[in-house]
Amino acid sequence: MADGGTLGQRITDLIGSEYNTIPAYAGDLINAAINETADLMSEDLLLKYSRTPGILEANTEWLVEDRKILKVTRTDADSSGIERECVYLDRVAFSAAQDSNSIYYATVNSPVYHLDTANAGAATLKIIPVPTTPQKGRIWYFQYVADSSDNTAITQTTVNTSLYLPNNSIHAIALKSSINILQSYISDFIQDEEDQEMLQMIQSQLKGLQAEYQQEMQRFMDEAGKPGSE
Asked: How far is CA 217 from CA 8, 96, 118, 169, in A?
């Protein structure tokens, strides 16, 4: 394994340098691995490494497309007020939270939020009571990587600043990337009726990588809801 190498070099160590020549490769298999790995991590761990939160300030909604929401808060007064966590509500409950005659009416002391899908498929996040300039809403989130981006050059020291994931998660990402790429290899072999002995070798390697990936991911998952070991 390349000591301190890039993500691309680590993938090369695992499955060889030909990975970037397969037809399906355009960064999408690696980026899918990044997103899939993030989704398996404890949300508290993602929160620990999250980027600067989005701000709702005198706005009614915040775009959430391609973002995994981790925590939403709202300040109950000016900058010296208490920051209170918003509770997620579905559409019906969120409507009731806006009814001043309802026992479920949301106040600055009990703020709530909802993901509204009325914007032609581009969901937006709304907070009630609506944040004002001194009473800001804050949204912590994980930004899924786009298929068009190239993350092969990231290293263990830049995972946090590039992807907002734990720096030592790069090995898990390399393993999952290799799994995705080998699965594409296998698909090509089956369609092209290539050497069956070679196919069996790739399938055996795939099983080994899948087992190693599952073991590696245990470090980043905690059933107690606390950040895993790093």
From this structure: 20, 40, 36, 8
